[in-house]
C-alpha cells in the first residue's frame, strides 16, 4: 500500500481507518463463530496497518518531535485499551461480558474522528480537497505549488515539499533503511512469538497468581506488555539510543523469547510475578526499538522523501509481526503436543 498511498488524501485515509475501527468492534462483539471472530481481527489489523503508515507519513509535515508524540500515543493507546478491557471483564472489577465491554468502547472511533477533523491543526503542506470528487486525489507537485504561494519569512517555508517518486526510486529509497528495518523486524518476530505463541500457554494456580483465573492472567499479561511499550515509546523525549544498542535489542528480545518458550514447555517459574516482570521487559525492548528506529529515519532521510520513507519503514515491524504469526502456529501446536505428561497439573 505504501507504494501508491501518496496520491490518496489524508482525510480519506483517516475516515477509512475510523470506519474499520467501528466495524471491527461490532463484528467481534456480535461474533457467534470462529470465522466471524477472525474476520473482526482481520478488519482490526487492516485498520491498524493503514493507520500506522498514514500517521507516520503525516509526521513528515510536523516537527521531528511528532515522532515521539506518535510513538507515545500508540503506546498509551495499547495500555489504555488493554487495561480498560481487563478492568471491564475482570470478575473482581467490572465483571462485564466481552460483548458489553467491546460495545462500551465504541466511543473511541468517535473520539478519533474529533481528534483529527476538529482538534488537530493541519499544516498547509497537507493537501485538503473540496467537494468535487475530482479533488479527492493529491495533485502532482502540490507541495511545490503551495510553497510558491507563501510569503518570505512564513514558518511554512521550513517545510520541504515532498517530491514525486517513481516506483524504481521507491525501491531504491528502501535500501538505506534496511540497517534499521531488519533489527526492528527481528525484535518484532521475537515479541509476537511471545505474545501469540507462548503466553496463552503460561498460567498458574490461584495460589501462585494473586488469585487470578486463567483467562484473567492472560489479560493482565497484555496490560503489562502494553505498559512496557508505553514507557519505552515515550522515552525518546528523554533519551535517544545509539544505533549499536538498536542492533543489540533483537538479541535481547530473542533471549526473552527463548525464556518464554522454555517456560511454556517446562513450567519452571514458581510464581506469576516473575512472568509479569519479564513481559514488561518484552514491551520495553519492542517499544524502544520502534520509537528509536523511526526517530533516526526521520533525521537521516532527505526531507523531500521523508513522508514516503517513514511509511515504507513501517514494513519492518509489519513483516516481523506476520512472520511471527505464522511461526506461532507451529510453536503453539508443538508445545501443546508435548503437554500430555502434564495433564494432571493442568487440570488440578
What is the CATH C-level name? Answer: Mainly Alpha
CA-based shape: globular
- In percent terms, what proportion of residues is strand? under 5%
User: How much helix, percentage-wise, in residues?
Assistant: 55-70%
Q: How would you characterize the largest beta sheet?
A: none
Radius of gyration: 22 Å
CATH architecture: Up-down Bundle
Count of DSSP H/I helices = 14
Q: Roughly how many Å apart are the termini?
A: 49 Å
What structural category characterises the helix and strand content? Answer: mainly alpha
Question: Helix and strand string, N-terminal first?
Answer: HHHHHHHHHHHHHH
Runs in which pLDDT lies below 50 for 5 or more consecutive residues are 1-5, 145-158, 344-348
CATH topology: Growth Hormone, Chain: A
* Number of E strands: 0
Transmembrane segments: 7-28, 34-58, 70-88, 100-122, 241-262, 268-291
Main location: membrane
InterPro entries: Battenin_disease_Cln3, Battenin_disease_Cln3_subgr, MFS_trans_sf
Protein name: Battenin
List keywords for this structure.
about 350 residues; Battenin; mainly alpha; about 0% strand; single chain; Growth Hormone, Chain: A; globular
